[in-house]
Amino acid sequence: MPMRLKITIIFLALSMAVFGLFFGMGRLLLLPQLIVMDRDEGVKDLRRVEKRFARDAEQLRRVCVDYAQWSETIAYLKGDNPNYAQNNLTRDFFSNYKLNVVQVYDKNGRLALSDVRDDAAFKPLVVPKFSDRGLPPNHPLLNAAGDSRGGAGCMEIGDRLAWVASVPIRRNETDQVVGMMVFARFVNEAAVKRIRGDVDVDFAIKPYVEESSLSDAKRVWQSDASALYDDGKSKLVLYGRLADVSGKPVRWIVSQSPKNLAAAGRELLGNVELSVVLTTLILFGSAYWFCGRYVVAPVQKLIKHVQWIRQSGDYSKRVGEHHADEVGMLAEEFDMLLTNLHRSRDARVKAERRMRDILQDQIEMVVRFTPDGEITFVNPAFARCFGKPESAFIGRTIDSLVVGEDRDVLVKKVHELKGDELGPEFVLRAALFNGEVSPQEWRIRASRNQDGGLAEYQATARTIAGAAVTKTPVRPMPILDIGPMVGDFTPGPTT
User: Fold this and answer.
1) Shortest CA distance to 79 belongs to which of 115, 111, 106, 110?
2) Which is higher by pLDDT, 180 or 322?
3) Which of 177, 299, 398, 456, by CA, is between 20 and 30 Å from 481?
4) What percent of the chain has pLDDT over 70?
5) Considering only CA atoms, which of 469, 364, 347, 357 is closest in space to residue 422?
């Protein structure tokens, strides 16, 4: 695989890993936290609205407490103040306290007084199932008679939502309860607007429906009393259940966040991810160019120099360009290798020349032959003994130089060689080219290559001093006649 492709793959893998890490951190860690922050902020807004409503209900309860403990109210229930309504439930009373409903119940839960009006116009209002018969005796507002504080909250009066408060009628907490006083204040648009300005939260009050049909948006959070929806645009919508005094949900408080952190986060992450991709592409292109210019090109140039030196066969040549980087160090090391190789080659050539000179000047006869018996080298002493030039022996078989009866002895001695040890001396009768037979002492050594395989044999021979040189009736072999081999010179297994 080319170096440039490897570097490209590594850079792409690292870029994808960094982008994947950034994407995972943003989408899996940051966005959920933004959604939680949106939810928490929305819930805080919703709680501020609920607290503001509760404060209005508490103010209404305090007014109700004042009138429930008033002596004229107690006297009215006892029958001692028949003009209570005409004297006290006036236009100013309803307008100042922004009341819409005033009801008085006796201690048996029967409606004794009911006045339902518009607080602004002071016109009577008819609310079915409320103003005519009053509340049933088991209603939570009336059951609060045993509670010294009474009850407060919201409830539906007809189709309108109202804050209500009920307080036991008695002079103090130790006196006997003689009835219940109920005040109610409609939650109109003006009240919602006033509360919206106080809490600085954009909210609305909507009729209660089941949550399954509440919104087509995606719900991202839910609790027992609230649910958070993402409209997929720029805002989060938070729905809070508003229950009446009996615990029944009657309205939804709908609050919209002024900003959707999750949506803004998604948009921001999208822009950042796009920037990361573009930056990665720019960096990749730059890295690809710099890699080719400053890494791959020097390496390719070094490869061409090496190929040129190898093809020329002249190991005295050098790369010659040594830069202060890894490629320069590699070129320098390669030049040092060529220097050592050239020196080693010169030393080997000189050693071979000295060895050849030694062999040329050696008195003993030296002959080398392959495992097939083919002669590859003879020294001048060997050639002078047999009476022919050195080139006349190359290509002949070694057994053609031995008297026929001694050929088996030669083969046997070769097979008895162990490893690369020098074999023992033995006597052979050499068949000289002039037809004479010369007794000689021979010693043979096997030479092996680097793999341990048999390369060739080298035999040294000398004429036995004082031995008679005889004529043989056997016709000597012609100089170009390679005699038949009497046996295989390849040794068997050695021990």
Assistant:
1) 106
2) 180
3) 456
4) 76
5) 364
Q: Which amino acid, residue 69?
A: Q
Looking at the DSSP assignment, which residues form a beta bridge with residue 470?
A: 437
Three-class DSSP category at 129: coil
What's the CA gap between 76 and 387, in Å, rounded?
A: 166
The pTM for the full model equals 0.48
Phi, psi of 156 (to 5 degrees): -90, 125
Q: Which amino acid is at 485?
A: M
Distance CA(76)–CA(180), nearest Å, equals 12
Tokens 């030039």 belong to residue: 389
Report the b/e string of 310-325 with b at 16+ CB within 10 A: eeeeebeebbeeeeee
Which helix (H) or strand (E) segment holds residue 336: the answer is: helix 326-361
Which pair of structure tokens corresponds to residue 244? 């009446």
Q: What is the mean pLDDT of residues 164-186?
A: 87
Are 5 and 11 in contact by the 8 Å Cβ rule? The answer is no
Q: What is the pLDDT of residues 67-103, one digit of tens each?
A: 999 999 999 988 888 999 899 988 889 888 888 899 9
Q: Which amino acid is at 441?
A: E
Task: Give the pLDDT score at 78.
Answer: 87
Rounded mean pLDDT, 413-423: 84
Best CA proximity match to 332, nearest among 346, 341, 315, 320: 320
**CA pseudo-torsion sign 416, 417, 419, 423:** positive
Q: What are the tokens at 134?
A: 């009053």
Q: What does DSSP say about strands 179-186 and 236-243: parallel, antiparallel, or unpaired? A: unpaired
Nearest to residue 305, comparing CAs of 326, 314, 294? 314
Answer positive or negative: Cα dihedral of 482, 486, 490, 495.
negative
Beta bridge pairs of residue 445: 422, 458
User: Do 327 and 294 meet the contact criterion of CB atoms below 8 Å apart?
Assistant: no
Q: List, for residues 472-483, the tens digit of each pLDDT value.
A: 544 444 333 333
Cβ distance 358 to 332 under 8 Å? no
In which residue are the tokens 């009497």 written?
486
Burial label for 285, CB within 10 Å (0-12, 13-18, 19+), is exposed
Structure-block tokens of residue 37 = 């922050």
Tens-place pLDDT, residues 148-174: 566 788 888 877 888 889 999 988 877
